[in-house]
Design a protein that fits this description.
about 200 residues, alpha+beta, Jelly Rolls, four-stranded antiparallel sheet, AlkB-like_sf, ALKBH7-like, Alpha-ketoglutarate-dependent dioxygenase AlkB-like domain-containing protein
């Protein structure tokens, strides 16, 4: 995977975080990352926490592509949950609250043209970047405005795989990644609409 990530940096406008070499991050990447809590990482934590495994693609999707994906995602949620916008109060593991979520195996009810347009967009902007990876089905997650959220957690690899790729749509958010054995050792990243992020 590291070879693939290095290849990304040479081809795309990306910002990756490698905590061992955070002093070399450019000023343009620092607008997205807050590294104020990782400058004095204990050496015994460094190997597991230092990552070239978080990559941010700012403005990866155009405004038109964002609007298209947002519309199709909300339509999919409406087909799954009905016309009324009802948010689930809590996830089964209590990590997510006030949300709607669904798995996508198909995007439409038989509209092959739209289905093909979505698949082409995702192939071009996501899947082709990782040509050797077998992907799990897409999950759409919508958080209720102001009250929806995701609590600190460690992803279940059996459920999510060991690589997570996310697309941020509609509104910006801040993701905080924290060392499991040292909660004070953390960094945060600004995810703006249209960005693509990769973590493992």
């Amino acid at each position: 995977m590291k070879g693939i990530l290095n290849h990304f940096r040479s081809r795309y406008n990306t910002f990756s975080l490698n905590c061992r070499y955070n002093s070399s991050l450019s000023s343009s990447s620092l607008q997205y990352f807050d590294l104020s809590h990782i400058h004095s990482i204990p050496s015994n934590l460094t190997p597991k926490f230092c990552i070239t495994d978080f990559i941010l693609f700012p403005d990866h999707f155009t405004l038109r592509e964002q609007a298209f994906l947002t519309t199709r995602s909300l339509e999919k949620l409406k087909r799954v949950f009905g016309k009324r916008t009802i948010y689930q109060p809590s996830h089964f593991d209590h990590v997510i609250h006030n949300y709607r979520e669904c798995q996508v195996t198909s995007w439409t009810n038989g509209d092959n043209e739209i289905e093909q347009e979505i698949n082409d967009l995702l192939d071009n902007k996501v899947y082709n970047l990782f040509s050797k990876i077998k992907w799990l089905p897409i999950h759409i997650l919508e958080l209720a405005e102001s009250i929806g959220g995701i609590k600190p957690h460690v992803d279940n690899i059996e459920y999510s795989g060991n690589i997570v790729v996310g697309i941020c749509l509609i509104s910006p958010t801040v993701m905080i990644l924290r060392h499991i054995n040292n909660p004070e050792c953390k960094f945060s990243v600004l995810l703006e609409p249209g960005c693509l992020y990769v973590q493992r």
